[in-house]
Q: What sequence folds into this?
């Protein structure tokens, strides 16, 4: 099982770009990198997933270097509603993935 | 589609009581999962299922049981409730196939908040 390390908390201001980096040194060949967002009293919600290079969707971008030992979730122009916990998971199946403590992002006005 | 539904939303149990947490999905997903989340912590996998009739243990299975008789339903059973089982329980589902190896994308239910006193 690939172990992930990400910052416990981050603060930002509305309108700024936020980058959250996740370290996963023992990622395996078949593993994908998946990020989830969780608001208080709700279940996690899928944000983005990638294998290598860059992936972009309407919500975020995911940057993965060639060695795949880390990844960076980029949230453009955050708003107060982006305040949440963000989890980085690595694995090829859900039962192989582990939710760590996540990164608690606080967006301030 | 309703997605993943869970019942009840809240429940208070006395020590030693038993109960079943219900989970259903209408997306024809083959994988289903049960997690628990303690305050300020990440989610821990209790049990999972890769299809009807097949279940397996996750990280923290002690004190729980599951069954998967249909694709849609994945109930979680607590036989002898203990205070340590006070937590929020989330059910999730995903679809995995040979062509989607590695690309597990889980859809979560709203959770059941359980208190054992």
A:
């Amino acid at each position: 099982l690939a172990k992930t390390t990400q910052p416990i908390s981050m603060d930002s201001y509305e309108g700024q770009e936020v980058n959250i980096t996740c370290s996963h040194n023992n990622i395996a060949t078949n593993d994908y990198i998946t990020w989830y967002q969780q608001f208080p009293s709700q279940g996690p919600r899928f944000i983005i997933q990638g294998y290598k290079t860059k992936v972009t969707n309407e919500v975020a971008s995911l940057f993965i270097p060639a060695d795949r030992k880390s990844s960076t979730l980029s949230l453009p122009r955050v708003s107060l509603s982006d305040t949440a916990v963000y989890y980085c998971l690595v694995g090829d199946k859900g039962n192989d993935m582990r939710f760590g403590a996540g990164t608690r992002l606080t967006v301030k006005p | 589609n309703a997605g993943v539904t869970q019942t009840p939303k809240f429940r208070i149990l006395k020590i030693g009581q038993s109960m079943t947490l219900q989970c259903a999905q209408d997306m024809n997903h083959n994988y289903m999962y049960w997690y628990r989340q303690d305050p300020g912590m990440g989610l821990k996998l209790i049990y999972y299922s890769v299809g009807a009739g097949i279940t397996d243990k996750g990280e923290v299975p002690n004190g729980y049981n599951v069954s998967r008789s249909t694709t849609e339903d994945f109930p979680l059973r607590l036989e002898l409730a203990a205070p340590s089982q006070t937590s929020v329980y989330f059910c999730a589902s995903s679809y995995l196939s040979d062509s989607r190896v590695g690309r597990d994308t889980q859809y979560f239910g709203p959770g059941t908040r359980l208190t054992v006193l």
